UniProtKB/TrEMBL annotation:
The keyword Protease is assigned to this record: no
Gene: LPCAT2
EC number, UniProt record: 2.3.1.-
Keywords: Acyltransferase, Membrane, Transferase, Transmembrane, Transmembrane helix
Protein's name according to its UniProt entry: Lysophosphatidylcholine acyltransferase 2
Membrane-spanning intervals of the chain: 12-34, 46-75, 87-107
Length: 123
């Protein structure tokens, strides 16, 4: 999603192109979430709509690798629900944030942010 106009738009508002892509996708979530109530079908169709639009917006904002990073916390949540339903919230909280902190340390996301970049692990 690298259009020639994005450079001009990004410089006009004083941000980098990756940050502009994130902001545009963030704004697009409003109409997408509004359309969620009009999706016909049962819960399975609604879950697919939410997963598909989330994956597409994540891809447009951060690239393919961000979707892979979202899989780990989701799997941790589902495994904790399957193994220990009573404590799945607290287990998922600590494991997912542990993974997030590990990604921050490994990728040094703060350095990328200072250089004008943005990635999914910053959020």
């Amino acid at each position: 999603m690298e259009l020639p106009e994005m450079d001009a738009m990004a410089s006009a508002i004083g941000v980098s192109v990756p940050v502009l892509r994130f902001l545009l996708c963030f704004v697009v979530t409003i109409p997408i979430s509004f359309l969620h109530r009009f999706v016909p079908g049962g819960p399975t169709v609604l879950h697919f709509y939410a997963a598909a639009t989330g994956a597409i917006l994540s891809y447009l904002s951060f690239g393919f690798s961000s979707n892979l990073h979202f899989v780990v916390p989701m799997l941790l949540g589902y495994v904790s629900m399957a193994l220990c339903r009573n404590y799945c919230g607290i287990i998922t909280f600590f494991l997912a944030f542990g993974y997030l902190i590990g990604c921050h340390v490994y990728y040094m996301s703060g350095d990328a942010w200072k250089e004008g970049g943005i990635d999914a692990k910053v959020l």
